[in-house]
Specification:
mainly alpha
Length: about 300
């Protein structure tokens, strides 16, 4: 999936938090960013991130560098996610992130947000549903600054679009809802769920099979009507052909008026309908034959005179 602007890397460079040290890992972060943003070598960017993440393993046990370790790891992970997306390997993003952090509950909020946006963009919300639910219900994550944003993305882009409206309402009444949302936000969320439920009810009431059956039935009735009208016009044509000599003695104006009245009485159908066009052509042909049979000789005789 090639969309370098879909996921922002502003947080990766941020306010300089990844430049807290002149360590080789910091240099790897800069190199990965250069591969990704400047050289557009996404595979090299991913390889550099994985190399930096391996080098960070030695920092995990050093208490004085724990903050440095967290920020560097997050920066490398963010660049790695973008590189995977550019390489069209987005299906493996969550698995790759879990390889770096071990458990879903330990993933930082900003990385969880990136994963949500990525999988929503490719319309694979179900991949993230269970993982986000576990992350939100971890009490340790409720103190993170991005907890409310994760909960909001989960509600708006995962639960409601997937039709899990009951679970969405239940979430508002749990600890997650009370921590993540204000009273006004919870009320707005309930209104959104009500709107979604109305849409679901409307779409379910319109059964495609019943619509197709109704259309087929109408078409069948229209075909039968066409056949009947065609038969009537043929019989009328035969009768008029037999008595054409007598009919010619009648006023042409009256005959034409009678034909027009017959046409209006028998053919009362919307010409805009697709099914009306073929048999209207057939009836037009029959009327043309009737006119030629009845009045053709009359006009030929008059033309000679």
């Amino acid at each position: 999936m090639r969309s370098s602007s879909s996921l922002s890397l502003a947080g990766a460079r941020g306010s300089g938090s990844v430049r807290l040290s002149s360590s080789p890992v910091t240099a790897l972060v800069d190199a990965a960013l250069e591969y990704l943003m400047v050289k557009k070598d996404f595979q090299a960017a991913l390889d550099t991130c994985e190399k930096g993440l391996e080098s960070l393993a030695s920092f995990a046990e050093q208490e004085d560098s724990s903050f440095k370790y967290v920020e560097l790891k997050a920066a490398l992970t963010i660049v790695g996610i973008q590189a995977l997306a550019e390489l069209n390997q987005w299906r493996g993003v969550l698995h790759w992130v879990l390889q770096q952090y071990g458990e879903t509950e330990k993933i930082p909020a900003k990385i969880i947000q990136m994963c949500i946006l990525l999988y929503v963009k490719v319309d694979e919300r179900a991949v993230m549903k269970d993982a986000i639910c576990d992350w939100l219900h971890c009490s340790g994550n409720m103190s993170q600054s991005g907890f409310s944003s994760v909960a909001e993305l989960y509600f708006l882009h995962i639960l409601v679009p997937m039709g899990h409206t009951a679970e969405a309402l239940e979430m508002l009444e749990t600890d997650v809802g009370w921590v993540a949302f204000t009273d006004e936000q919870r009320q707005a969320a309930r209104s959104l769920v009500d709107v979604q439920n109305e849409k679901n009810a409307t779409s379910s009431s319109t059964n495609p099979e019943s619509v197709a059956l109704t259309t087929t039935t109408c078409a069948s009735k229209q075909d039968k009507l066409t056949q009947r009208l065609t038969s009537i016009m043929r019989l009328l044509y035969r009768g008029l052909s037999v008595g054409s000599v007598r009919i010619r003695s009648i006023s042409l104006r009256r005959v034409f008026l009678a034909l027009m009245l017959l046409y209006l009485l028998l053919i009362r159908i919307d010409p805009a309908l697709p099914s009306a066009f073929p048999w209207l052509l057939r009836l037009h042909g029959l009327l043309q034959q009737m006119w030629n049979t009845m009045f053709g000789p009359y006009y030929r005789t008059n033309s000679r005179i």
